[in-house]
Specification:
alpha/beta, elongated, single chain, 7 strands, 5 helices, 35% helix, 204 residues
Length: 204
């Protein structure tokens, strides 16, 4: 007899029964973070790069040297030594002062021009000694002071030229962590999406 009976006889005789096809190995499960549309990955990568560019100056200042550049005092200013996005110190009296209120915190600050210079000083409060030490803002950040400069000129501050600088008094390196942490998260997001995009391109 053939068929099932022969298979049964082989089993009792100690012979191995014929096996079916071997099962396929389990398919490796891919992380949902990597299994995404290449278009979406490209968009997220571009957005992360744009945000990183916005944070670049703040991150660079966080790691800037802690020794302040001395820009001198009345009668002996050394503004040619000024370096954007660096800690600097300068002495003198403020003129054409304007009070401003920060939108987020509601804190009152005073922005004034250092007499005899084209340097604006943005300092907390209204008073204090005529010694200022803080961050020389990069050119992109100076655009936030356009309205203040216009108000100064309207009040007769004609001595302020076109190439003016801003020193934000009290802002020192290694004190503002949020930009650094934000940049680290953005770098991680960019790396994940860049990997997903490359995997898609190389698999084609």
């Amino acid at each position: 007899m053939t068929g099932p009976r022969r298979t049964e006889d082989a089993f009792f005789a100690g012979e191995p029964a014929s096996a079916g096809p071997a099962p396929l190995p389990p398919r490796r499960r891919e992380s949902p973070l990597l299994r995404r549309s290449p278009v979406l990955a490209a968009v997220v990568l571009a957005a992360a790069g744009w945000l990183l560019a916005l944070l670049r100056a703040d991150v660079a200042y966080f790691f800037a040297p802690g020794a302040a550049i001395d820009l001198g005092g009345p009668g002996a200013y050394r503004l040619e030594a000024a370096r954007e996005n660096r800690l600097a110190q300068i002495r003198g009296e403020l003129v054409d002062a304007v009070s401003v209120t920060e939108t987020r915190s509601g804190a009152v600050r005073t922005v004034g021009r250092l007499a005899g210079t084209n340097l604006l000083v943005d300092r907390p409060g209204r008073g204090g000694p005529p010694v200022f030490e803080g961050r020389l803002l990069p050119a992109a950040a100076r655009a936030d002071y356009g309205e203040v400069v216009a108000a100064m000129r309207a009040r007769g501050g004609a001595a302020l030229g076109e190439r003016w600088l801003v020193l934000r008094d009290g802002e020192r390196p290694r004190t503002r962590w949020p930009p650094v942490l934000g940049a680290a998260i953005l770098l991680l997001v960019a790396a994940v999406n860049l990997r997903a995009l490359l995997r898609h391109l190389l698999s084609r």
